[in-house]
Predict the structure.
Amino acid sequence: MASPSQERTRSKVVAVFRQPEAAARAREAIVGIEGLDDGQVRVIGPRVHRGAGNSAPDGQHVAGDALPAHLIFPLAGALLAVVAWLVLFVTEIPMVVSTPVPSLVAMTLFGAVLGLIADATRSIRPHRPAPDPAHRLAASGARWALVVQPSSRAQFERVFRLLQATGVPVGYAP
């Protein structure tokens, strides 16, 4: 069983400040917590455009989304197209037998495109969750949200206690 400091957490801790200086001071204090790096702490100001204020660390979910979308599904579609071409070639369909290479290339490309379309229909959903209420509050008024994504339960507890001590509204998103 993992110790509490080794547990992974996907929670975010959010504090809302009225002054940007207070948010910056809190950010400086939080970045000093052991094991917490710069990419896990963000200050989101009131002029952040919708969708631009991503509260997740950079690079999160990129490999998990890009691999199936741009590699696995098109390759599977191309493989199925090659199998279909082999069936047509073995059954001696005149158009396939008379032009084997062009027909193989065309069918393989169509299969890859169909694989991309299949993945698009599979993943019709936003890649990022909707902004949490504190994020929207900061973006809509003259407030600054400090969003922290700790990587362990111990970091989560230290960040939460530190932000509560500032006296500003603090919440967390599971």
